[in-house]
Amino acid sequence: MKVEIPSRRANRLINPGCVVLVTAEHAGRRNLMPAAWVTPVSHDPPLCAVAIGPGRFTHGLIEKSGEFGLSVPGLAIADKVARAGDLSGSEVEDKFAAVGLTPQPGWRIRAPSVAECLGHLECVVEQKITAGDHTVFVGRIVAAFADKEAFGETWLLPEDPHLRPLHHLGGDWFAVLEKRLLVTGG
Ligand SMILES: Cc1cc2nc3c(=O)[nH]c(=O)nc-3n(C[C@H](O)[C@H](O)[C@H](O)COP(=O)(O)O)c2cc1C
């Protein structure tokens, strides 16, 4: 039996890609915010997209700087991810300090990345699309780094759950993937 899902929760059916901390910086002001609505969109050139509400402080920093970072948190900092989503950079001087996360210099962009995270993408904005009540920033990936204990050819999902990327199911619900499976079609 299937039950109808209300449209306000429909996105949660395809939500659980990993959650990211979006970072941005402009004119000496840096910030981070969690985002679950993020996806790769092109191999060549390598592009990814993130949907950000125009009211977010981070939105303005991305618009002005033309860059953003995506840092992938693990389970170890789930509480800080949730806290970063409850707080706006418009309310505090430095959200990194407010939530207890460490900014580290970007490799190829000015925006910092989050030192405690397992993986990092750095993106330069190629396109900005208004989609309903969010803006989809499409970014060209100009740098990518990851912890080698956590990521090889894919996420490795080792025994230590803190080395697994964090997923956001919706509301206050988060998850980590349990097991990597090799499945071939032929
Ligand atoms: C797990 C999680 C996922 C979120 N995903 C998104 C998202 O994809 N897009 C978005 O605009 N806001 C998302 N939010 C809400 C923002 O992170 C939140 O409004 C944040 O306070 C904005 O911070 P800022 O104003 O400092 O930019 C999410 C929040 C949480 C906790």
Brief digest:
The chain is mainly beta and 186 residues long. The protein has helices at 7-10, 57-65, 78-86, 95-99; strands at residues 20-26, 29-35, 38-42, 47-52, 67-72, 103-104, 113-114, 119-131, 134-146, 166-170, 173-176. It has a single domain, classed as Roll (Pnp Oxidase, Chain A), CATH 2.30.110.10.
- Number of structural units classed as domains: 1
Which hetero ligands occur in this complex?
flavin mononucleotide
Strand content: 35-45%
First and last CA, distance:
32 Å
Helix content, binned percent: 10-25%
- In CATH, the topology is named Pnp Oxidase, Chain A
Q: What's the total count of β strands?
A: 11
- Order of helical and strand elements: HEEEEHEHHEEEEEE
CATH superfamily: Electron Transport, Fmn-binding Protein, Chain A
Summarize the main sheet. Answer: 7 strands, antiparallel
In terms of quaternary structure, the protein is: single chain
How would you sum up the global shape? globular
Descriptive report:
With 186 residues, this protein is mostly beta strands. The protein has one domain (18-171): Pnp Oxidase, Chain A (Roll), CATH 2.30.110.10. 15% of the residues lie in helices and 38% in strands. It has 4 helices and 11 strands; from the N terminus they run αββββαβααββββββ. It has helices at residues 7-10, 57-65, 78-86, 95-99, and strands at residues 20-26, 29-35, 38-42, 47-52, 67-72, 103-104, 113-114, 119-131, 134-146, 166-170, 173-176. The protein has a 7-stranded antiparallel beta sheet. It has a two-stranded antiparallel sheet with strand order 6-7. Strand 1 and strand 2 form a beta hairpin. The chain is globular, with a radius of gyration of 16 Å. 32% of the residues are buried. The protein binds flavin mononucleotide. Flavin mononucleotide (FMN) binds at residues 19, 31, 33-37, 51-53, 56-58, 82, 85, 87-90, 95, 134, 168.
